[in-house]
């Protein structure tokens, strides 16, 4: 018999999964979180659930908030099960289910007045967010886009903001007026210097409204940078069915994730923080070395396997890792070109870290899709791949593998697999990318003229030559032959 998850059914669910051993009625919200998606519930919420299980810091529970249609769907799902989530942590050998209870509610989606009221509440001491890499209103130069129509609307009507950042500014303005200590703003998104990017967005809106408010935020509010890591695929009917079949639990929106998790966070907070170091969070004065390591080796590695796999019709990441040519491509490009660009990381052996990454990518339980890894390359490539190319060029070092990775992305954006099957649009800028890729088939370096992606790297003769040669070879000989030449196979 399948048990529907709720507070009332937890005693029965406890025979099938670990459940909160603490009194959830004793929790009070200290964190307001925007974007209650899968990654948040597999990461931050799990750390807090573990902390509460130790009997600590139960005034730091999570109150959800959101402004997007997907937030409403999530709210409806979670409200029906008393804000509980089943998290299935999967290694290659086993799957373990746990029910987390760190969330105590979620505000009405898009209700600016209700959200600002809670942001003004002194009990809320951290405002955290996972709004995806593309949700920070960054322009082509990498700066905050203060001219975006939605941002301009928030500046023009500060009492009725529609964006997360406009709401944060409104909440901070209320706290300033009341003489309340400001909350910390803590991004948990996978972007370089996420605290700095978030600070730029908040200050960009604040400056458009009130220079004095902006100065106060700049002086009083902490925006710690953090490195977050846990592979967490999307939830679909397959995952819901697997939870019911394997554990006998019905959860409207469960989370399946790998058993690995990491969180490195700068210890800068405006109004205190929970003792997350007790459950494995690493607090450091500067997260940059850890961030660079993860973005280049893991996220860059995902890009390395994604596009050849997409062109060869491979569905899942672990299947790509079971393909000898793709695994050899990943290993060679990481060892020869990516890892050498990563500065030393305190207490970390980079080769051993890459070994962990290989095992994680090959985990057959995760079923992370190649399509997800290929998604939004126009936003991800400038963050995960282009900086490594830039550093290799500065060092006058080889870039053959990185040029090939870029050529594979271009070939993927042409919109057809090696067998001629259509690749469905997979980027917010897909039409432009497809047009550029089709032009590049005859004139390869036209692809590198996308300055918002490549910047100065796209103008470098050494890179243009290598890229053009790689793309021509892909069209002439196919993905498998080109990969085989690169890795040195006959």
From TrEMBL:
SUPFAM superfamilies: 6-phosphogluconate dehydrogenase C-terminal domain-like, NAD(P)-binding Rossmann-fold domains. Gene3D superfamilies: N-(1-d-carboxylethyl)-l-norvaline Dehydrogenase, domain 2, NAD(P)-binding Rossmann-like Domain. One of its GO terms (molecular function) is mannitol 2-dehydrogenase activity. Residues 286-475 form the Mannitol dehydrogenase C-terminal domain. Keywords: NAD, Oxidoreductase. Its EC number is 1.1.1.67. It is an enzyme of class 1 (oxidoreductase). This is Mannitol 2-dehydrogenase.
């Amino acid at each position: 018999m399948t048990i529907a998850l709720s507070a009332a059914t937890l005693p029965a669910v406890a025979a099938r999964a670990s459940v909160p051993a603490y009194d959830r009625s004793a929790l009070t919200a200290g964190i307001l979180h925007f974007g209650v998606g899968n990654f948040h519930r597999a990461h931050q919420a799990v750390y807090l659930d573990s902390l509460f299980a130790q009997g600590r810091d139960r005034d730091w529970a999570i109150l959800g908030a959101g402004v997007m249609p997907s937030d409403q769907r999530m709210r409806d799902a979670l409200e029906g099960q008393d804000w509980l989530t089943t998290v299935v942590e999967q290694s290659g050998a086993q799957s373990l289910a746990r029910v987390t209870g760190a969330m105590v509610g979620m505000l009405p989606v898009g209700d600016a007045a209700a959200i600002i009221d809670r942001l003004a509440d002194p009990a809320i001491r951290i405002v955290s967010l996972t709004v995806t890499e593309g949700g920070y209103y960054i322009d082509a130069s990498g700066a905050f886009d203060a001219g975006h129509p939605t941002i301009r609307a928030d500046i023009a009507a500060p009492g009725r903001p529609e964006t997360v950042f406009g709401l944060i500014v409104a909440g901070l303005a209320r706290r300033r007026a009341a003489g309340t200590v400001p909350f910390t703003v803590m991004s948990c998104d996978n972007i370089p210097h996420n605290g700095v990017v978030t600070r730029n967005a908040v200050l960009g809106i604040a400056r458009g409204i009130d220079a004095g408010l902006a100065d106060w935020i700049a002086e009083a509010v902490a925006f710690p940078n953090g490195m977050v890591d846990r592979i967490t695929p999307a939830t679909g009917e397959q995952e819901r069915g697997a939870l019911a079949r394997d554990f006998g639990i019905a959860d409207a929106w469960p989370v399946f994730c790998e058993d690995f998790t990491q969180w490195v966070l700068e210890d800068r907070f405006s109004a205190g923080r929970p003792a997350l170091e007790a459950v494995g969070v690493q607090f450091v004065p500067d997260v940059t070395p850890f961030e660079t390591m993860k973005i280049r080796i893991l996220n860059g590695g995902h890009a390395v396997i994604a596009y050849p796999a997409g062109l060869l019709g491979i569905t899942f990441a672990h299947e790509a890792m079971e393909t000898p040519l793709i695994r050899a491509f990943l290993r060679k490009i990481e060892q020869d070109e990516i890892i050498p660009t990563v500065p030393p990381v305190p207490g970390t052996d980079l080769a051993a870290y890459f070994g962990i990454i290989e095992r994680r990518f090959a985990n057959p339980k995760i079923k992370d899709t190649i399509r997800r890894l290929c998604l939004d390359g126009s936003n991800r490539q400038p963050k995960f791949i282009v900086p490594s190319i830039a550093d290799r060029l500065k060092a006058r070092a080889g870039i053959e593998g990185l040029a090939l990775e870029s050529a594979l992305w271009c070939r993927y954006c042409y919109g057809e697999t090696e067998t001629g099957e259509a690749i469905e649009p997979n980027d917010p800028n897909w039409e432009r990318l497809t047009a550029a890729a089709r032009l590049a088939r005859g004139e390869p370096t036209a692809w590198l003229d996308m300055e918002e992606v490549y910047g100065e790297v796209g103008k470098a003769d050494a890179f243009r030559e290598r890229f053009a040669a790689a793309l021509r070879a892909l069209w002439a000989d196919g993905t498998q032959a080109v990969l085989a030449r690169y890795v040195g196979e006959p």
